[in-house]
Amino acid sequence: MEDNYKVYRESEMVSLYDYYGKAQGMARGLEVYGMAVQDCVHTDHQQVRQGGYEGRVRTYPRTWLDKVVFIELAHMDGAKSDSEIVEDLQNGYAYTNVRSVRGE
After folding, report:
1. pLDDT, tens digit, for every residue of 13-32?
2. Cβ contact 58:44 at 8 Å
3. Is there a contact between 43 and 33 (Cβ–Cβ < 8 Å)?
4. CA 80, CA 15: separation in Å to the nearest integer?
5. Parallel, antiparallel, or unpaired for β 13-15 and 44-50?
6. Dihedrals phi, psi of 72, to nearest 5 degrees
7. Residue 31's CB: how many other CB atoms inside 10 A?
């Protein structure tokens, strides 16, 4: 867990608005914050004035948000669990390496 903390800590911190390019709403914000707490990911705050909102917003490591979006997209494509996603990635990686060894 400490290694993940270090990797994400070195990533650029961005708000959900900055990451997605538009407001995400309170429900999505609470959902993402809950995932960050579960993953023991460092979050921070920044003061903003954008789109009629002025106040503090929570920021997250960009690399962690990339991971969250990737997993959500994989689930939308029919993956049943995170372990299934990892297995598919490993199988694809192994298949790619076999093809490159064969010169395909």
Report:
1. 999 999 998 888 899 999 99
2. yes
3. yes
4. 28
5. unpaired
6. -60, -40
7. 13
